[in-house]
Design brief:
The complex is a heterodimer of chains A (507) and B (480).
Chain A lengths: L25 E3 L5 E13 L38 H13 L3 E2 L4 E5 L9 E5 L5 E7 L5 E11 L3 E5 L10 E5 L6 E7 L6 H17 L12 E11 L9 E6 L2 H20 L7 E6 L4 E7 L9 E2 L10 H9 L5 H12 L6 H8 L3 H9 L4 H11 L10 H12 L5 H13 L5 H7 L7 H14 L1 H9 L2 H18 L6 H13 L1
Parallel strand pairs in A: 12-13
Antiparallel strand pairs in A: 1-2, 2-10, 2-11, 3-6, 4-5, 4-15, 6-7, 7-10, 8-9, 11-12, 13-14
Chain B lengths: L2 H10 L4 H19 L2 E4 L1 H17 L10 E5 L26 H8 L3 E6 L33 H8 L5 E5 L6 H7 L2 E4 L20 E5 L2 H11 L29 E5 L9 H16 L3 E5 L7 H16 L17 H12 L2 H14 L5 H24 L2 E5 L14 H5 L6 H6 L2 E9 L5 E8 L4 H14 L11
Parallel strand pairs in B: 2-3, 2-4, 7-8, 7-9
Antiparallel strand pairs in B: 1-3, 4-6, 5-6, 5-10, 9-11, 10-11
Helix pairs in contact in B: 2-3, 5-6, 8-15, 9-11, 9-12
Classes of the chains: A alpha+beta (507), B alpha/beta (480).
Chain lengths: 507, 480
């Protein structure tokens, strides 16, 4: 009797499960077979601490090479690491933000030789990470599980001089240890990412959380947030797990989407052709839009992990973790739910997602609470306040504008123009701007004479309008409204115009 | 003159630190060529430190508890601006930009550093023959080894080069050479003395400690170097214990246990007899002496030679020619690292790096490193059980007295030297070696007194009684 094959497990020994989703990337291979994506993401976030993970050297980006260093950073003989308490607190804050367990954790050494790693081992967390089992709700509503997040130190940076700027063929290499020892939080998702768009949303959402909680500055372009994607594909609708590849060097959200789409297709074509996908690390090349083999797992790294004997386990204790959780700011998902609740929009509505993403939901909420119509507020925030200074517009000024609009004193077009003035000049009110621009509600008599003038000038169209079916009527309604707006120089109120047209055609 | 006497005289203004330094430097000039205790003698540093002490005394400032006391420092402790080599070619020429915490404390206490002492390369060895710069000889008998790895520090005190020295003890590297050279050597509780600036061999076992000619001098030095250091995460967060004031407390009522597992097979009967004599002396002074079993100590050596090399293989990875020390040029970075390490490390260091790398490898971790850690837990548990019954334990420090240079070529036979000392490091407890008589050849015998973690005070009280009862100290025939 043979034992049933063991189910694949993650780094914490849990069985790997793949989330169902109504948005799954399916690629069709050359032979017409269909393959669906299974993807997990590893995000490295540099923590926004004053000093490094294990020493008092400054943690600061962009300084002259080898200025933010000390004996510990350089791994000089005899030096010892001391855990940065601020980094531990930030990691715990992240754990609380994703509803994870924040636990007693142990540092381990990951041993391998590399010139930009001063000790030739990296202090990381291995089998007892500080954060386990969290979840992230994406704007689409899809939930991605987070297996773990652990603390570790960053490496230095090598510059290869001569040759093609790569290590092979270089004349010599220079190493900058400013980044060595910078605290990193490595955040490992479960394989719950099923499309490139979900991957994009996941990273964007993580970034929002990290920034909102002041855990990291989240700048992908400065490398303070780096993404690796673990990608495999399987036959559409099957429950299998196939060999995966790890894609590195993904430096923007756009590259992430492209890399996932490329790699899924590459693997699907290999499977369809009966060829083997090799478990390996692949490098995304932005220029040719492909992934290339970096190193094969078969010539495998054996990191010889063992508990770091120079450090003691880190345990914040339940009480401190509860304090950290209680002090969390309102997070993006909660902001979306709050805004959706107040506006009656679905939580996944684009207006809701965009408003929160831009950090303008507090502005919108305050305007709504000041009595402005929720729908109009969202329209203005999304469409008209995406400009410089738009986010700074005081909610009560926005509310006043929306009230003028809904009361019929301003048309939508006028409101947009007034809003631009309000943003440009903080000393004004909506009523003042409207008056200065001559946007006064047109009296009924003046509007009636314009409407009648337009009807008389277009007798053929008017006859069709009055006699036509719904479709023709709708079409011509647009024509007449346009003419009337033109004649009134945009000052006519759309609803009043529609009412008058209906009234005249019925009589 | 003892350290206690020197410090008292200098502090009182009745002795000059400068003249004391000069006298010791003269003694070094005379005898060092035969002994080779030092990798580097630092007369300028010593004279400047002595002058500063004299200035403070003259100015009425407190010159510190070690005022004017010459001290030798093991060459694996970092000294700001003074070459530190670990007796390895790979660090030849490297000058640290910082002081180890213990060195800072020595300087602040008014000690006068006379030099950096020889050791087995990276503290790996039991004879100081593994030094890249040649062996140290035992001042008691120049044909014999001083023990190791802190052989230079033990020899420096035994030869009268300094009344005090610092060593490090990972599996016996202070106590074994202390026994071989007839001096006092202390392995403090793990975490009592900062390791910041001690170039690591095996981080979970290493501990810095004193050598001295007398128990009182060792206590004085330990009080200066012990106490919490925020730069060492494994440092115990409490101040240094007050030991000296308890040295005359005696041992009335103290419960002493002789470790039965370390009194039989493999132990020179002459040494076992001296341990029993020391036990009798303690009993005569009012202690209760019993025989105690600590069964797991017999597994100490096996566990140690997995754990210590495993940690060493990782600790020594940083010596790669990239940032400091030796660099052997080669076409690629990888080849440069390989060439540097091949030329820079000696055979014993390479052996342990390979052992440790193997013990940590995927597929072997559980069988080797993991299993060794379980044994370590057992040893600690057995010691803890013994310390329920007694306050201190007694055993030989070494199975034999000092052997001749070149006599032991087989590494495993060499490792057996540390049978009695290793278990204490694995348990994280305290132990010290006190000279007690000699064998038929006149070679010193050391008695080991062991105590639970932070049991330094009762340990030193017992040591003071053993010291007082010890037969006449062997006189070095080569130094006579």
């Amino acid at each position: 009797m043979t034992a049933a094959p063991a189910l694949p497990t993650d780094s914490l020994g849990n069985t790997i499960t793949v989330a169902e989703s109504d948005d799954v990337l399916v690629v069709e291979a050359a032979d017409g077979s269909r393959w669906e994506l299974v993807c997990g993401l590893e995000v490295h976030a540099e923590l926004a601490t004053e000093t490094k993970m294990f020493s008092g050297a400054p943690n600061h980006f962009g300084d002259d090479p080898n200025t933010n260093i000390d004996p510990v950073t350089l791994g000089l003989p005899g030096t010892l690491p001391v855990v940065n308490q601020q980094a531990v607190e930030l990691a715990a804050r992240f754990g609380c933000a994703i509803g994870a367990t924040v636990q007693r954790s142990v540092f381990s050494r990951k041993n391998y030789f590399y010139p930009d790693m001063p000790k030739n081992f990296q202090i990381s967390q291995y089998d007892q990470p500080i954060v386990v089992d969290g979840r992230l709700e994406l704007p689409s509503g899809h939930v991605v599980g987070i297996e773990r997040a652990h603390l570790e130190e960053d490496t230095g940076k090598s510059t290869h001089v001569g040759g093609a700027g790569r290590i092979k063929g270089a004349e010599y290499s220079l190493v900058d240890y400013n980044r060595a020892g910078v605290p990193l939080l490595e955040i490992v998702s479960r394989p719950h990412v099923r499309s490139a768009e979900q991957a994009r949303q996941y990273v964007a959402e993580l970034r929002s959380i990290l920034v909102a909680c002041a855990i990291s500055d989240g700048k992908m372009e400065e490398g303070s947030m780096r993404v690796d994607a673990n990608i495999s594909v399987r036959r559409e609708g099957s429950g299998e797990l196939r060999t995966r590849c790890e894609i590195k060097n993904v430096n923007s959200l756009r590259s992430l989407v492209r890399a996932i789409e490329y790699e899924a297709r590459r693997q699907a074509d290999l499977h369809a052709a009966g060829q083997k996908v090799t478990q390996e690390t692949r490098h995304w090349d932005e220029n040719d839009g492909r992934t290339h083999t970096m190193r094969s797992k078969e010539e495998a790294d054996d990191y010889r992990y063992f508990p770091e004997p120079d450090l003691v386990p880190v345990d914040l204790g339940a009480e401190r973790v509860a304090e950290i959780a209680a002090a969390l700011p309102l997070l993006p998902a909660a902001r979306r739910h709050r805004l959706a609740g107040l506006t009656g929009e679905p939580v996944t509505a684009e207006a809701v997602v965009v408003t929160v993403e831009r950090g303008q939901d507090d502005q919108a909420l305050a305007a709504i609470e000041a009595g402005a119509d929720a729908g109009r507020v969202l329209v203005h925030v999304v469409q008209n306040l995406a400009v410089d200074g738009g986010a700074d517009l005081a909610p009560e000024r926005l509310a006043e504008l929306v009230k003028l609009e809904t009361s019929g004193d301003l048309t939508a077009t006028q409101a947009k123009q007034v809003l631009a003035e309000l943003v440009a000049d903080p000393s004004t009110t909506a009523a003042e701007v409207a008056k200065a621009k001559g946007f006064e509600a047109m009296d009924t008599g003046a509007l009636e004479s314009i409407v009648d003038g337009v009807i008389n000038a277009n007798p053929a169209e008017w006859e069709q309008f009055c006699a036509g079916d719904d479709k023709a009527r709708k079409k011509l309604s647009g024509f007449f409204t346009g003419q009337i707006m033109k004649a009134s120089k945009g000052q006519a109120d759309g609803r009043a115009v529609a009412q008058l047209l209906a009234q005249r055609s019925a009589s | 003159m003892t350290a206690v006497d020197i410090a008292r005289g200098v502090r009182a203004g009745s002795a000059s630190a400068t003249s004391i330094a000069d006298a010791h430097l003269a003694r070094i000039d005379e005898r060092e060529p035969d002994v080779h205790a030092f990798n580097l003698v630092t007369p300028d540093v010593a004279r400047a430190a002595a002058a500063e002490v004299d200035r403070k005394v003259a100015a009425g400032e407190d010159p510190g508890p070690l005022a004017g006391v010459p001290i030798a420092i093991k060459d694996n402790l970092c000294t700001d601006g003074i070459a530190t080599t670990c007796s390895s070619k790979i660090l030849e020429g490297w000058v640290p930009p910082y002081d180890a915490t213990v060195v800072q404390r020595l300087v602040a206490a008014g000690a006068v550093p006379v030099g950096k002492t020889n050791l087995d390369e990276f503290a790996m060895g039991s004879s100081t023959e593994n030094s890249a710069f040649g062996p140290t000889r035992n001042p008691v008998d120049l044909s014999r080894v001083p023990g190791g790895s802190s052989g230079g520090s033990a020899a420096a005190v035994a030869a009268g080069f300094a009344p005090l020295s610092l060593g490090s003890d990972t599996g016996g590297s202070i106590r074994q050479p202390a026994a071989f050279c007839g001096v006092v050597g202390v392995k403090p509780t793990y975490g009592l003395v900062s390791r910041y600036g001690l170039i690591a061999f095996a981080s979970s076992l290493d501990q810095v400690g004193p050598f001295a000619a007398t128990v009182a001098d060792a206590a004085l030095l330990l009080e200066v170097i012990a106490g919490h250091d925020p730069a060492d995460a494994t440092s115990i967060p409490q101040p240094a214990p007050a030991i000296s004031e308890h040295l005359d407390d005696g041992v009335a009522g103290l419960r002493v246990g002789v470790i039965s597992e370390l009194m039989g097979e493999g132990i020179d009967p002459v040494i076992a007899a001296q341990v029993r004599a020391a036990a009798d002396a303690l009993a005569a002074a009012g202690a209760t002496v019993t025989e105690v079993s600590v069964p797991a100590v017999t597994f100490g050596l096996s566990a140690y030679y997995l754990i210590a090399p495993a940690e060493a293989s990782s600790n020594l990875a940083r010596f790669d020619g990239v940032r400091y020390g030796l660099r052997v040029d080669a076409p690629t970075t990888n080849e440069m690292m390989v060439a540097t390490r091949t030329q820079g490390f000696g055979p014993e260091v390479k052996r342990r790096i390979m052992l440790g790398t193997y013990a940590l490898s995927a597929g072997y971790y559980d069988a080797f490193y993991g299993q060794a850690q379980k044994v370590r837990t057992l040893i600690a548990r057995d010691f803890a059980a013994a310390y329920e019954e007694v306050d201190v334990l007694l055993s030989p420090t070494t199975p034999t007295t000092a052997f001749a240079l070149g006599a032991i070529e087989d590494p495993l036979t060499m490792y057996l030297n540390d049978t009695c000392t290793i278990p204490t490091n694995l348990a994280g407890d305290a132990a010290m070696s006190v000279p007690f008589g000699a064998d038929a050849a006149g070679l010193p015998v050391g008695v080991q007194i062991l105590a639970p973690a932070l049991g330094e005070v009762p340990m030193f009280r017992a040591a003071a009684v053993v010291e007082a009862a010890a037969p006449a100290r062997p006189t070095g025939k080569d130094l006579r």
